[in-house]
Amino acid sequence: MNPLGVNPVRFRRLKRTVAIGDAAIFGWLGFLGGYMSLKDGDSFGWIAIGVGIAVLTLPFTAFFRAHLDILASRRGFPALAILPNLLVILMFGSTASTFLKDPFLAYNDSDSLAAIVFGGAAMVAVAALIANVVAYFMDLRSGSSQVA
Fold it and tell me: pTM score > 0.85 for this model?
């Protein structure tokens, strides 16, 4: 038991890839979504950029690491890591495909930028999903998924 009264972390690699992958996805959305809002003249973009900065710094805070340690000590943590990634891919991929079906996409700068933002977020989510699955199998192979 550690000072928080939590069992030892089971999935060490998966814990790391989840934190990095989620920060990459939502940092991408925060920065480019904020830029997209600022380009359209909406001052909400500054808030989105601030959220993007906060999301990128979140995995390095002690509170977030403690929370992730609590989650990673549970047996169902791989499902908590992989299933939301699939939902994020479905959500952002379907939104990007809606913009990509527009026949006048090349003429509309806002739709082009939205397709880039959501398509890029879907691609980052696919990369995070692949990294999470690889980390999960590496944890299984090394035995770090077992409680010591």
Answer: no
Burial class (CB in 10 A: 0-12, 13-18, 19+), 23: buried
Within a domain: 111: yes
> Quick one: which of 137, 147, 94 has its CA closest to 129?
137
Dist. CA 21–CA 132, nearest whole Å: 8
What confidence score (pLDDT) does residue 5 get?
Answer: 55
Domain that holds residue 16: 12-142
d(CA 112, CA 40): 13
7 and 148 in contact (C-beta within 8 Å)? no
> How many structural domains comprise the chain?
1
Find out whether 72 and 9 touch, Cβ atoms under 8 Å. yes
- In this prediction, residues 28-34 reach a mean pLDDT of 89
Asked whether residue 1 is assigned to any structural domain, the reply reads no
The whole-angstrom separation of Cα 58 and Cα 64 is 7
> What mean pLDDT value characterizes the chain?
86
- Render pLDDT for 122-136 as a digit per residue (tens, 0 to 9): 999 999 999 999 999
- Report the b/e string of 113-122 with b at 16+ CB within 10 A: bbbebbbbbb
